[in-house]
Each structure stands twice: as structure tokens, then as C-alpha cells.
Design brief:
Alpha-Beta Plaits, about 60% helix, alpha+beta, Arc Repressor Mutant, subunit A, 15 helices
């Protein structure tokens, strides 16, 4: 079948409409409009270009207008009605196809990040989106002050920057649970670094976490979970670094692997601080600032908006209550580990 024959399929009945309009000056009936819409939908579903279809309709209108017809206005009105209905059907089918594609993409992303699908089938579906799951991948997750969805200005701006810089490099950009997500081959660390830079800027100073590279179809899930865990750790520990790498935070899961042992350390080491005036929290904040500032009294005092004298008094108070001297290297390790545990276990707000 030639292209001309294919186009003629979507002009079915159009010549008769022109002839009737030319002879009587009437307008199209509801049934005729529905018929034009249906043909438009069929043309869109068959992926025919609208420009060629419009040209064919106009050519047919010129060809089939009988000589000595009624007023040109009547004929043009019918042609306009027919084309409007045809275009409406065409666009309706396109919108339905877009919605279907978006739904399929969202389903794939959910299955990819949660590992809910058969891995063999998931790998086949991934190729449609430019991913080769047999290779190693790493996942970066960015969060901001707002929740983002695909199509929002923030994800679009990051996507434009990524495409402009890297083009098609088997990268997947999406959103999940209000966060920006980038999946990239593990051997292209510059891609995730670039994503982190632009996501940080686009989210007005949000925070980005990068999971460790993982191999195989299930690797994306593992790297994604590591990135999420890194963001959760940052929130609980008060880490303000703009970019967090899960590989740099491995010590924290190790420390909390035995939760009961960590709870015992926290209570036995820091429990006496609860007897201080004002409770344990101010002194825990003192220790946290001390360790976060590299054990420099002046810097830690500045962070807490205290005088150095007041800060030093607090350290002395901690020493007296716990028997552990923050300035002593041996005691310092125990105290710092206990402070990390208190943050992770939300102590003393959550009693153990």
C-alpha cells in the first residue's frame, strides 16, 4: 500500500462532505464530527504526521469542490469543522499515548528502585530507557525544601543541564517520593558529580547522597537504598555536607549493627548527664559541637553562641558527671562514639 493509499484511508467520506456542503450549505452532523474524530485518533495511533494529513485534507477540499457550488464561506466552514474534529481526535489519541507512556515509565521506575519485578524482565524493560542493568550502576538522590514531581521546573532544569553536558549516556533522571533521582553507570562518576552540583543549586541548597556502585540487575536497588540511608543518617546526625557519599559513611551502620550494645554504651557513658541542671541535652549538644569542630574549644563555643569560658565550664561539668575527660584521647573516643549513638538512637528523647 502506497503512502497515498494510506493517507486516503483517513479521508474516508471527506469528499462527500465537501460535495454536500457545496450543494446545500449545511453544517456537519454530530455523527459526522464523531467520525472525523475517530479517523484522527486512528491516524495518530498509526503514527502518521499531522502536517501531511492536513495537506491531504486541503488538497481534497480543492479537488472535490464542485463547480458552481454554494458560497465559499459555507464550504470553508465545513472544511474547518472537519479539520477541527479530525485534529481533536488526533490530539486526544496523542494525549492518551503520552499518559500511557508516563504510566509505563513510572511503573518501571517503581519496579527498578524497589526491586519488585522479575530481574530478567526488568533488564529487558530497562533497555527501553537506555539502561543496561547487567553493568554496575550508582544512584544519587537529592532532596530539597519542597517535594518534586516529574515535569516540575526544578527537575526539568537539572535534566536540561545533564542532557546538554552528557547527551545520551545511559542515564536515567526521575523523581521518587518528592526527591530527584539519577541512575548512572558506575564507571562514569563525573555524571553523578555533575548531577549533585546542579541538583544542589536547583534545590536552593538541598542535600545530595550518592550510593555505592553495585553490579547486576539488583544493583540499582541497593545503591538507591544506600543513598536514602545516607540522607537519613545526615538528618539524624546533623550532617550539613551538601554531598554525601555512602562509602564515606560506612562506619555508622557498623556502629549500629548491634543496637543493644550501642544503647548500653550510650546509657552507661552519657546517662549521668541526666542529673545535670537542665538535663542531658545541653551537655550532649556541647560534646557534639566539640567533636564536630575538631575538638577546638573556641570554634565549638562559637557554634553554640557561648563564651569560651562558659563552654570550658560545660566540658568540666561533663568530666565530673561521667568521669570521662573529653580532652583525653582514650576517653574522647568513647565519648564521641556514645554521642554518635545518642544521635542515631535519638537519646535521651527516646529512652532505652
Amino acid at each position: 500500500m502506497t503512502e497515498r493509499d494510506v493517507t486516503a484511508t483517513y479521508l474516508e467520506g471527506f469528499a462527500r462532505l465537501i460535495a454536500d456542503a457545496s450543494a446545500t450549505g449545511r453544517r456537519l452532523t454530530r455523527h459526522e464530527l464523531d467520525s472525523r474524530r475517530s479517523l484522527g485518533e486512528q491516524a495518530a495511533e498509526a503514527s502518521h504526521g499531522m502536517r501531511d494529513l492536513m495537506a491531504a485534507h486541503l488538497a481534497a477540499a480543492r479537488t472535490h469542490r464542485p463547480a458552481g457550488a454554494a458560497s465559499s464561506d459555507s464550504v470553508l466552514a465545513v472544511v474547518a469543522q472537519a479539520l477541527d474534529a479530525f485534529t481533536e481526535g488526533y490530539e486526544r489519541a496523542q494525549r492518551a499515548a503520552v499518559r500511557q507512556e508516563e504510566a509505563a515509565r513510572r511503573e518501571f521506575i517503581d519496579d527498578l528502585l524497589y526491586g519488585r519485578s522479575d530481574m530478567g524482565k526488568l533488564s529487558e524493560r530497562a533497555e527501553r530507557y537506555g539502561l543496561r542493568l547487567s553493568y554496575a550502576h550508582a544512584v544519587a538522590v537529592a532532596r530539597g525544601t519542597a517535594a518534586y514531581e516529574e515535569g516540575d521546573p526544578t527537575p526539568r532544569s537539572v535534566e536540561r543541564a545533564m542532557v546538554s553536558r552528557f547527551g545520551d549516556r545511559h542515564i536515567l533522571l526521575t523523581t521518587k517520593d518528592g526527591r530527584l533521582v539519577c541512575v548512572a553507570p558506575a564507571d562514569q562518576d563525573e555524571v553523578l558529580a555533575f548531577f549533585a552540583k546542579h541538583a544542589y543549586a536547583a534545590t536552593d541548597g538541598g542535600q545530595v547522597a550518592i550510593g555505592r556502585p553495585q553490579s547486576g540487575p539488583g544493583g540499582v536497588v541497593q545503591s538507591y537504598e544506600q543513598a536514602l540511608n545516607a540522607l537519613e543518617l545526615a538528618e539524624r546526625l546533623g550532617l550539613s555536607d551538601p554531598v554525601l557519599r555512602a562509602a564515606d559513611l560506612l562506619v555508622y551502620p557498623v556502629l549500629t549493627r548491634d543496637r543493644q550494645a550501642m544503647a548500653d554504651l550510650v546509657v552507661n557513658t552519657l546517662g549521668p548527664l541526666q542529673h545535670a541542671r537542665g538535663g542531658a541535652k545541653p551537655l550532649i549538644e556541647t560534646l557534639a559541637a566539640y567533636f564536630d569542630s575538631g575538638c577546638v574549644n573556641a570554634e565549638a563555643a562559637r557554634r553554640l553562641a557561648l563564651s569560651v569560658r562558659a563552654f570550658t565550664y560545660r566540658l568540666d561539668r561533663i568530666h565530673k558527671l561521667t568521669g570521662a575527660d573529653p580532652a583525653d584521647p582514650v576517653h574522647r573516643y568513647t565519648l564521641q562514639t556514645a554521642i554518635i549513638g545518642a544521635r542515631l538512637l535519638d537519646w535521651p528523647d527516646q529512652q532505652m
